[in-house]
Amino acid sequence: MRDTRAELLIQAETLVRGRGYAGFSYADLAAAVGIRKASIHHHFPSKVDLGAALVAAYAARYEAALAAIRADVADGPGRIEAYGRLYLGGVEQGLGCLCAALAIEGDALPERLRRDIAAFFADHLVWLETVLREGQADSSVRAGTDPGGLARYVIATLEGALLMERLFASPDAFRGTLAVLVGGLRPR
């Protein structure tokens, strides 16, 4: 049996990651899924409802991935490298990060989406700061730099590399940037 809601979320995520929130309409989504626009409204009465569902699903996938990284990877630099590889899929698909694609639109977005995106990134900053602080405590991450500042640096570096290498279609260059980032976290 067809799961139309799931198909809508998959196609809408691709559209937002490729074009931005303002760059697609329900008509685009209906064409991508092969249904009428009215059917979309049955699942998502408004575009804001759709956007909120996209962010929630994306955040849930990342939450599971971050938990797996903490469980499977022992040291701080290894965890940051695994985190960076989550971004690599976007480069390979020619797509940006969903929440960064939304964040770029800033004040043009509905307040609900701005709050959801801020919460997504706040959760990542907490996770990264914890990983970096633990890495400093076990000496796998160089000491002397504030873990909160490093967490922001990690996200800024990866989001910037994703944006740039999406443009250049260069997963290898993204991997190189990730290697430099991780190498800079290791003790000297």
UniProtKB/TrEMBL annotation:
Going by the UniProt record, its keywords in alphabetical order are:
DNA-binding, Transcription, Transcription regulation
- Looking at the record, the residues that make up the HTH tetR-type domain are 2-62
Name the Gene Ontology molecular function terms of this record. DNA binding
DNA-binding region, residue intervals: 25-44
UniProt key word Calcium:
no
Q: State if DNA-binding is listed as a keyword.
A: yes
Which PROSITE patterns is this protein grouped with? HTH_TETR_2 (PS50977)
- Give the protein name, as stated in the record: Transcriptional regulator, TetR family
**Whose protein is this, by species?**
Methylobacterium phyllostachyos
